[in-house]
Design goal:
Elements (H helix, E strand, L loop, with lengths): L2 H12 L8 H14 L1 H10 L21 E5 L2 E4 L4 E4 L14 H14 L8 H13 L5 E5 L2 H16 L3 E5 L35 E4 L4 H10 L6 E6 L4 H4 L1 E2 L4 H12 L2 E5 L11 H6 L5 E4 L11 E5 L1 H4 L20 H17 L1 H20 L8 E5 L2 E5 L13 H21 L2 E2 L5 E3 L6 H17 L4
Parallel strand pairs: 3-14, 5-6, 5-7, 7-9, 9-10
Antiparallel strand pairs: 1-2, 2-3, 4-11, 10-11, 12-13, 13-15
Helix pairs in contact: 2-14, 4-12, 5-12, 7-9, 13-15
C-alpha cells in the first residue's frame, strides 16, 4: 500500500467514532481469558510484590494482566497454562529464522560448552560478526558492539557530536530510539514533547530539536535556525517512519534528510534496530539505496540472544571511538561483544542468508496483508486496514498513534482509541494471536498456511463481535 493511500485511510478512521465491543460481549471475553490463563494471573499477583507494576517488558499486553510465557518454537509460543499462540511479536522483531532454530542454537551451545559465556576480553567471534555486518550493509565500514539498541543510540549521538564538533540533534516526532534521557522526547506520538519524561531533567533536551514527520519545511527550518546555535550534528531517523512504520514517511522524506545533512555537514543516523536484516539483509539503507553516515543496530543482530547492540558507520567517522586519551568518544560495556552474542550474530546472519529467511517472511507478510484487507473490506463501516513494509506489518483499527495533538479533545481521543485497541488485542490474544501493541505484527520464515488460516479466523471472530452500523 502506497504512502498516500495509508495516510488517506488513517484519516478516514480518525474522522469517524471508534467502534467498541458491546460491554456484555467484552465481559464474556475477559472471563474466558481469565479462565484460560489462571497461572499467568497467579504469577502476575506475586510479581506485583517483587517487580514495579508486576511486569518487566514494554512489549507485553498488560491489560487486564500480562501473560507469563513458558516456551517458543518456530512461529508458536506457549504460556504457562499450556495455551498456544501464533507469535507475531517475534521478541520485538529479531526472530527471522523462527524460535529455537536448531542450527543456530547448536552453534551457540557449542560456544558456551567450549569457550564459556564471557571473559571481558576480545574473541575471534567479534571479527566474524563485524565482517558479516559490513559485508551486507553498504553504509558500514566499522562496527562497535554494545549491549542494547538504547546504548547504541546513545553512542551514535556522542559520535556525531564528536565528529562534527556540533551540538544539536534533530529527532523526528513519534520515533523511538530507546530510553536514554536525551531521546525520551516526542516518543510514540508526534508533538508529545516531554510528556513521558518523568524523572529526566529538562536540561537533557537542551540540544534536541523536535521535527514532525514529513514536515519538509520544518525540517529545513530546523537546520537553518540552529546553524548559529551550535549547529546540527546529526538527524536520528527510523527509515520507514516512527515506531517501525506506524508513522510512515513520504517517499521523498529520507532523500531530503540526506540532502540537508550533506548541505549542512551533519550526519544522517539510521536507527535500524528493527529494519536491519528484517527489511533486507543489507537493511533499509540497501533496500532504499539511501546511505546513512551512522547505523544503529539492536536485538536483531543476535536473533534474540541477549546483550545485543551496535553502532556502525564509515571508517573516518567511527575512528572517533579509537582516538587518544582525552580525544576519543567513551563507550563501554563489560558484556558487550561477548562470545555468545557474537557467535549468535555471525551464525544467524549466515543462516538467514542461506535459508532466504527475509524473502520467506516477506512473502508471508505480503499474503497475510492482502487476505486481511480482503476480510476487512467486508466491514467498510469500520475502516480497518493493513499495510506492510516487508516482514513488518501494521494493522490499523483505531489509529490512536495518529491523533493530532492540536485537536481540542486529543488526549481523550488517544485514551479512548487506545483502550478500544487494547480490548481488540485481548480478544485476539485470548483466541491465539500474539501481536505487538494492538497495532503491529512481525513475521518469520516459518509462518505457514495453517498460521494464515488461523489468523484470519481469529480476526473474523473479532469482527463478528462489533455491531454493524
Amino acid at each position: 500500500m502506497e504512502y498516500a493511500e495509508i495516510m488517506k485511510r488513517k484519516n478516514e478512521i480518525l474522522s469517524r467514532p471508534v467502534q467498541p465491543i458491546p460491554k456484555d460481549k467484552l465481559e464474556k471475553e475477559h472471563k474466558l481469558y481469565a479462565q484460560r490463563c489462571k497461572k499467568s494471573i497467579e504469577i502476575f499477583e506475586k510479581a506485583k510484590e517483587l517487580i514495579p507494576g508486576g511486569v518487566e517488558h514494554n512489549l507485553s499486553q498488560n491489560k487486564p494482566f500480562p501473560l507469563a510465557m513458558d516456551r517458543a518454537k518456530g512461529y508458536k509460543i506457549w504460556d504457562v497454562d499450556g495455551n498456544e499462540y501464533i507469535d507475531y511479536l517475534m521478541c520485538g522483531a529479531p526472530i527471522m529464522l523462527g524460535h529455537g532454530f536448531a542450527d543456530l542454537d547448536e552453534k551457540v551451545i557449542e560456544v558456551i560448552r567450549q569457550k564459556g559465556p564471557a571473559t571481558g576480553l576480545t574473541s575471534e567471534y567479534e571479527l566474524l560478526a563485524a565482517a558479516e555486518i559490513i559485508k551486507h550493509m553498504p553504509g558500514v565500514d566499522m562496527v562497535r558492539f554494545l549491549q542494547s539498541g538504547t546504548e547504541a543510540d546513545m553512542a551514535a549521538l556522542r559520535i556525531a557530536r564528536a565528529y562534527t564538533g556540533k551540538q544539536k540533534i534533530i529527532k523526528i516526532g513519534g520515533s523511538y530510539h530507546g530510553w536514554s534521557d536525551q531521546l525520551v522526547y516526542s516518543i510514540h506520538i508526534p508533538q508529545t514533547g516531554a510528556m513521558e519524561s518523568k524523572g529526566i531533567p529538562v536540561e537533557c533536551f537542551a540540544h534536541i530539536v523536535d521535527v514532525n514527520p514529513n514536515d519538509f519545511e520544518g525540517l529545513e527550518k530546523a537546520f537553518k535556525d540552529n546553524h548559529a546555535k551550535g549547529g546540527i550534528a546529526g538527524v536520528m531517523v527510523e527509515p520507514i517512519g516512527g515506531e517501525s512504520g506506524a508513522h510512515p514517511v513520504h517517499p521523498d522524506w529520507n532523500k531530503t534528510i540526506r540532502q540537508l545533512c550533506d548541505k549542512y555537514e551533519a550526519l544522517m543516523i539510521f536507527d535500524e534496530v528493527v529494519t536491519g536484516f528484517r527489511l533486507d539483509i543489507g537493511g533499509a539503507q540497501k533496500l532504499y539505496n539511501i546511505i546513512p553516515d551512522l547505523t544503529v543496530l539492536g536485538k536483531i543482530i543476535t536473533h534474540g540472544y541477549p546483550s545485543s547492540g551496535a553502532v556502525a558507520g564509515k571508517k573516518d567517522i567511527m575512528k572517533v571511538c579509537a582516538g587518544s586519551l582525552g580525544e576519543k568518544v567513551f563507550v563501554g560495556g563489560t558484556l558487550a561483544a561477548n562470545p555468545i552474542s557474537m557467535a549468535a550474530c555471525y551464525h544467524a546472519l549466515k543462516l538467514m542468508e542461506e535459508h532466504d529467511a527475509i524473502g520467506k517472511a516477506t512473502a508471508y507478510a505480503n499474503r497475510l496483508t492482502k487476505e486481511l484487507n480482503n476480510l476487512f473490506a467486508t466491514r467498510p463501516d469500520l475502516g480497518f486496514f493493513v499495510y506492510n513494509f516487508g516482514a513488518i506489518m501494521h494493522y490499523m483499527t483505531t489509529a490512536f498513534f495518529s491523533v493530532d495533538l492540536k485537536a481540542q479533545d486529543a488526549l481523550m481521543q488517544i485514551l479512548t482509541r487506545k483502550q478500544i485497541a487494547d480490548d481488540y488485542q485481548v480478544i485476539t490474544m485470548s483466541h491465539g494471536l500474539c501481536t505487538l501493541a494492538g497495532t503491529r505484527m512481525y513475521t518469520c520464515m516459518q509462518h505457514d498456511e495453517a498460521a494464515l488460516k488461523q489468523t484470519l479466523q481469529v480476526w473474523e471472530y473479532l469482527l463478528s463481535l462489533i455491531p454493524k452500523n
